[in-house]
């Protein structure tokens, strides 16, 4: 088991989520800063768009058009010429806010619903995954998930893996021809690790941001852990693989507890380390 040291790339964000590497840039959502940023490999940032209803997961349609989860109004928005254009509303299909998302090679977006009002102190209820097809039609394709969080899709477009934060596991599904999900199984039982955002590498292993454990963990199908990276006293929120050779692990960290996320503190930053196995491009 190898260990890595994290280096600060950029800081002074409120609460970052949804890191993605596309078109030679890192894309991130500042959920409570209500903005999407892009950054180059040196950490220089630009505001891509303002998202007043709080952005989270980011994805890209086959033609390159960015999609973003708009949490509060439970919708998907396209980013077109620096403006938001509604792609689909999923409000009628979910309980609680929507959160992370992955878009597959066919342009199907899989969006996770928390299932209950986490930050309002509501009692836990399982959430679901909603499929939004490229034409904006939406339907539920998986239910009973214990706080669905970071999702990835394999390069062959046949398997979706999603983190179940409160289940402390990764769940895998077969993606059917029409985009439906079937054959749910446990990809990895994570023991005491609480998974948040995840990213897939070229060997089929998954890097997991373990929020409550202050660590980024690489796990193989079946549950074998190969690497653990400590984030010190900071919470591990999400991660993605990128850079010119796809071997830079971009790690989002937060200096605070769950109860601090909505307080507006500028306590989030992006840290990096180099890894051996390149990213597979998802999410």
Provide a quick synopsis of the model.
The chain is mainly β. The protein has a single domain, classed as Neuraminidase. The protein is 0% helix and 54% strand.
Highlighted features:
single chain; Neuraminidase; 283 residues; four-stranded antiparallel sheet; mainly beta
Proportion of beta-strand residues: over 45%
- Give the class-level CATH name: Mainly Beta
- Unreliable stretches (pLDDT < 50, length at least 5) are none
| Rounded mean pLDDT score | 95
Summed up, the domain count is: 1
Count of DSSP E strands? 24
Q: Summarize the main sheet.
A: 4 strands, antiparallel
Query: How do the strands line up in the largest sheet?
Result: 1-24-23-22
Structural class: mainly beta
CATH architecture classification: 6 Propeller
Query: Can you count the helices?
Result: 0
Question: What is the CATH fold-level name?
Answer: Neuraminidase
Rg from alpha-carbon coordinates: 17 Å
Question: In terms of topology, how is this protein built?
Answer:
Layout: E1 7-13, E2 16-22, E3 25-30, E4 35-39, E5 45-50, E6 55-60, E7 66-70, E8 75-80, E9 83-89, E10 98-103, E11 109-113, E12 127-132, E13 138-145, E14 148-153, E15 159-164, E16 169-175, E17 181-189, E18 195-200, E19 206-210, E20 215-219, E21 225-230, E22 235-242, E23 248-254, E24 268-274
Antiparallel strand pairs: 1-24, 2-3, 3-4, 4-5, 6-7, 7-8, 8-9, 10-11, 11-12, 12-13, 14-15, 15-16, 16-17, 18-19, 19-20, 20-21, 22-23, 23-24
